[in-house]
Amino acid sequence: xxxxxxxxxxxxxxxxxxxxxxxxxxxxxxxxxxxxxxxxxxxxxxxxxxxxxxxxxxxxxxxxxxxxxxxxxxxxxxxxxxxxxxxxxxxxxxxxxxxxxxxxxxxxxxxxxxxxxxxxxxxxxxxxxxxxxxxxxxxxxxxxxxxxxxxxxxxxxxxxxxxxxxxxxxxxxxxxxxxxxxxxxxxxxxxxxxxxxxxxxxxxxxxxxxxxxxxxxxxxxxxxxxxxxxxxxxxxxxxxxxxxxxxxxxxxxxxxxxxxxxxxxxxxxxxxx
Length: 273
Known about the structure:
Layout: E1 3-6, H1 14-22, E2 26-33, H2 41-52, E3 55-60, H3 64-67, H4 79-92, E4 103-104, E5 112-116, H5 135-140, H6 148-151, H7 160-178, E6 184-188, H8 218-221, E7 224-229, E8 236-240, E9 243-247, E10 267-270
Parallel strand pairs: 1-2, 2-3, 5-6, 6-7, 7-9
Antiparallel strand pairs: 1-10, 4-5, 8-9
């Protein structure tokens, strides 16, 4: 029995959906899906239906593309309502979300809990010399503006920064409840928890939309044994303070080899490879 992980399936791309459809079943294994499944409700629902029948258990946390409100998608709600719309779809298929109780890995000793989290971003992933109210202009000066600025709505919050602050407070409280001395955590987020994990050489100022410094010490404050994230489309393993950070993106078709299928891109998280 293994805990596997992938993110950034981006099923609006035909090659990605075709490969997912051909992926074999892993009925004994559990799968983490760390966000950016699909932009439209219909595609997200199809994906959860398919995955829930191919793995023993699924864990999901939202990516920014999941939270987009596409004008042509008549089913889609906005902001917080869109998030809970996705949560309900997950629950229809038995998929666990950041709104559900953390689940213990079977027979783990000490107890190991799998913790999906959702924190968004607040433009704090920027150099210290860039002031908060200048951050967007700083990114725009390099030709970088995320599509989130147009179709990721924060309703009913006044901004995505405000939504991020609420999610971080909520998540910290939940992690603290589980973080007793005898427990361990595998922490799941769509975004990297640390600014120093964002290594975007071609578009470095896109870091604004990649997380929040509010989470930078979570791997030390809580008994985290591994962190699973995506968003960057740069697969790899890094360590910070002895904690393993796994970027598990699939990405757009140009970020992987569709002819190989998705199976080789499933990253083993537990037991440690």
